[in-house]
TrEMBL record:
Keywords: Membrane, Transmembrane, Transmembrane helix. Pfam families: HGSNAT_cat (PF07786). This is Heparan-alpha-glucosaminide N-acetyltransferase domain-containing protein. The chain crosses the membrane at residues 67-89, 101-117, 147-165, 185-207, 214-234, 262-284, 296-315, 335-355. The keyword Transmembrane applies. The keyword Magnesium does not apply. The lineage of its organism: Bacteria, Bacillati, Actinomycetota, Actinomycetes, Micrococcales. Residues 25-217 form the Heparan-alpha-glucosaminide N-acetyltransferase catalytic domain.
Length: 374
């Protein structure tokens, strides 16, 4: 005998609610992802002044660079969680997990390439995200302490190599421009793998534990103070930033991949994740549920804003690449509210985000098996 329609409906809605709020999800991680998406929306759609810490009217510029670094750090957290959390998977289970990460990387790269083809004038992060996934695969079996050591070593060394590479004439050629686009070089993987490994490390350390969250908050805040503090003391001139290797490295300017940006913004990302986790231990987790819904489907939310942008600009302007003209429409409020409302409704009424669902289906069909607990 079939259950009454009302019972079936309540059961379905309850399962959607539990998927977003049950013990299988980490609410603070979803919140941090939601904040990263909101930050990238702001960076894309709002013209901002240069950040002056003493001037609150410029604080909106805090999204520059930091949102994408937060996104990369959270990628490491996600990789850590799907490969075993505090106890890395072993043997066949880890091989399955690694192969699935590889398939996800391919899917991310393809979605990124499609978004680049829209002509929307942003540096699409997904190709870089895909490369970072691939680089993290062989390191997914490491423990927390080793991951932190490797992340710290990369953070201290690779900005110097990155600055030297960025100075090569190749990047000014047509071939260099294509390679830069295909690899997401605006988010250079040689440096940014440090953020992924730091996120992977905190997942291995036990991101659900309050003591780990408090240590993350303290360490992240300290790193941010050091990185941004040294930048403030040096007061580097942006016009002279590339006059030497040292000036190119000794900066915290957003998207510079300088040593001080890696330290400061990497610390900022850890502190934001920790603060989100701690906040979601309180009743405030219900107030921020819409942002958590966005963070539960970040690929869908990120893709949606660029697709809507491309369609809107093509119809209204006839040019998807006209950034100043598109910003004149003040698209941030309607796009942001639409994405937050859409993700919230979808999460509560349907469940997993459509692109997240499709990615999972394709990944599981490409690599069958059970890598371990989800």
């Amino acid at each position: 005998m079939a259950a009454p329609a009302g019972v079936v409906e309540r059961s379905w809605l309850r399962s959607r609610w539990e998927r977003l709020n049950g013990p299988a999800r980490i609410a603070g991680v979803d919140l941090a992802r939601g904040l990263a998406i909101l930050g990238m929306l702001t960076a894309h759609l709002v013209a901002r002044p240069e950040l002056v810490p003493a001037d609150p009217s410029t604080w909106i510029a805090i999204v520059d660079g930091r949102s994408s670094i937060l996104f990369a750090t959270l990628a490491g957290v996600s990789i850590g969680l799907v490969t075993g959390g505090t106890a890395p998977l072993r043997g066949p289970a880890m091989r399955t997990a690694r192969l699935r990460l590889l398939v996800r990387a391919v899917i991310l790269w393809l979605v990124g390439a499609a978004l680049i083809a829209t002509g929307v004038p942003v540096y699409v992060i997904l190709p870089a995200y895909a490369v970072l996934f691939v680089l993290a695969i062989p390191l997914a079996g490491l423990g927390a302490r080793t991951l932190f050591v490797v992340a710290g070593s990369v953070a201290l060394v690779m900005p110097w190599i990155q600055a030297w590479l960025d100075d090569r004439a190749f990047w000014s050629t047509a071939a260099g421009d294509r390679v830069s686009t295909l690899l997401g070089w605006h988010y250079p993987f040689l440096v940014w793998i440090a953020f992924v490994l730091a996120g992977l490390g905190v997942a291995r350390a036990g991101i659900r534990r309050i003591e780990v969250q408090l240590r993350m908050l303290g360490a992240g805040t300290a790193l941010a103070v050091v990185g941004y503090g040294l930048h403030g003391l040096a007061a580097p001139d942006p016009m002279l930033e590339y006059s030497s290797l040292a000036t190119a490295v000794w900066t915290a300017r957003p998207h510079s991949s300088g040593l001080l940006e890696v330290i400061g913004s990497g610390g900022f990302a850890l502190a934001v994740i920790a603060a989100s986790l701690l906040l979601c231990r309180t009743f405030l987790r219900w107030i921020v549920l819409p942002l958590r819904a966005v963070g539960a489907m970040p690929l869908t939310a990120y893709t949606a804003q660029l697709v809507v942008w491309a369609i809107w600009a093509a119809i209204a302007i006839g040019d998807t690449g006209a950034l100043v003209e598109f910003r004149a429409f003040e698209p941030f409020p309607p796009l942001t509210l639409g994405i937050v409302a859409g993700c919230t409704a979808w999460a509560l009424l349907v469940g997993r985000g459509p692109l997240e669902w499709l990615t999972d289906v394709l990944t599981r069909r490409a690599v069958p098996g059970r890598p371990g607990p989800r």
